[in-house]
Design a protein that fits this description.
By secondary structure, this protein is α/β, with parallel strands linked by helices. It has two domains: 172 residues, NAD(P)-binding Rossmann-like Domain (Rossmann fold), CATH 3.40.50; 167 residues, Rossmann fold (3-Layer(aba) Sandwich). It is built from 13 helices and 15 strands. α10 packs across α11. 50% of the residues are buried. The model has no long low-confidence stretch (mean pLDDT 95). It is an enzyme of class 1 (oxidoreductase). Keywords: NAD, Nucleotide-binding, Oxidoreductase. It comes from Flagellimonas pelagia. InterPro entries: Ala_DH, Ala_DH/PNT_CS2, AlaDH/PNT_N, AlaDH/PNT_NAD(H)-bd, NAD(P)-bd_dom_sf. Its EC number is 1.4.1.1.
């Protein structure tokens, strides 16, 4: 199979879909790999690195799309790429369709085979291709939140760890999944007081067992959320509904109950956000303020640490890329149920239930 790795063109997205190590494995399995010139530079991988691994370097993104059977990316295609996608071409990347009707319609129109990293699902319900980026984003959420709590960027002026004689900052984490656990771990490491909320008591028990005593758990409901937003300095949105739009746990009217300079980092922005006032931002212009509350809603947070993110991502995607290249998507998905869960849109048909429900489309058909 011919596999193409284009350069990401989303704002400040420095990750790349595959490392030279990944290319080496594909070439070893007798596949051809085309990499767009400069695609890996943001992650610290250069054309010569890919060439040594056996890839052929192409000058333009158009050439990569035109000459490849499968495209391996990091982020969803943006408008400039829609017309480059070919009928029947496999696109293997993060899509997050539920947050974008325009993207969904464009991929239906393209008649490509869209396999989404974020919905590949193991038998135990875990999401192996989403996990490493959730780990990165969860940890980054605290780094960024701590930065934007500083007064020069309109935050409350709170140091999360406090100092002797001054109470530490307070962090509220919504969701005890991968993002929430990593955020709580980082915040606790800085010395902040952390409250982590979820509707899954099993998860809360696990958190209670592994976290230090200054991380407390509480059942998530509207009453408790309204109570805690009044006293916490940094709020992390880490809620995920597989393949579906995130629920609005914080509504617009709640902002008035927060203290001026409170910071919200909505990691769920890729799935529409768990805060009603969330709108996607970029690393170039990461925040905006509504009712004196600072919103940080960068839709590709791991793109700011591209070396770590790219290596972590290729570690988990490569086995699936090899299956798709070796067997073709139909046979690979037939034999690997986890991979088949990644099928979202296939040759013009939505085949993932939650996406169909989000946009009131026809019931998905079985492939």
């Amino acid at each position: 199979m011919i596999v193409g790795v284009p350069k990401e063109i989303k704002n400040n997205e420095n990750r790349v879909g595959m490392t030279p190590a990944g290319v080496f494995e594909l070439v070893k399995n007798n596949h051809t790999v085309y990499v767009q010139s400069g695609a890996g530079e943001g992650s610290g991988f250069f054309n010569q690195d890919y060439q040594k691994a056996g890839a052929t370097i192409l000058d333009t993104i158009g050439q990569v799309y035109a000459m490849s059977d499968m495209i391996v990316k990091v982020k969803e295609p943006i408008a400039q790429e829609y017309d480059l996608i070919q009928k029947g071409q496999i696109l293997f990347t993060y899509f997050h369709f539920a947050s974008s009707e325009a993207l969904t319609k464009a991929m239906i129109k393209s008649k490509a085979v869209c396999i989404a990293y974020e919905t590949v699902e193991d038998e135990d319900g875990t999401l192996p291709l989403l996990t490493p980026m959730s780990e990165v984003a969860g940890r980054m959420a605290i780094q960024q939140g701590a930065k934007f709590l500083e007064k020069p960027v309109k935050g409350r002026g709170v140091l999360l760890g406090g100092v002797p004689g001054v109470a530490p900052g307070r962090v509220l984490v919504l969701g005890a999944g991968t993002v929430g656990i990593q955020a709580a771990k980082m915040a606790a490491g800085l010395g902040a007081h952390v409250t982590i909320m979820d509707v899954n008591m099993k998860r809360l028990r696990q958190v209670n067992d592994i976290m230090p005593s200054h991380v407390v758990t509480e059942f998530s409901n509207e009453f408790n959320i309204r109570k805690h937003i009044q006293t916490h300095d940094l709020i992390i949105g880490g809620v995920l509904l597989k393949g579906a739009k995130a629920p609005n746990l914080i509504t617009r009217d709640m902002l008035k109950d927060m203290r001026p300079g409170t910071v919200i980092v909505d990691v769920a922005v890729d799935q529409g956000g768990c805060v009603e006032t969330t709108k996607p931002t970029t690393h170039e212009d990461p925040t905006y303020i509504i009712d004196d509350v600072v919103h940080y809603c960068v839709a590709n947070m791991p793109g700011a640490v591209p070396y770590t993110s790219t290596v972590a991502l290729t570690n988990v995607t490569l086995p699936y890329v090899l299956k798709l290249a070796n067997m073709g998507w139909r046979s690979a998905c037939k034999l690997d149920k986890s991979l088949s869960m990644g099928l979202n849109i296939v040759e013009g048909e939505v085949v993932y239930k939650e996406i169909a429900e989000t946009f009131h489309l026809e019931e998905p058909v079985l492939v």
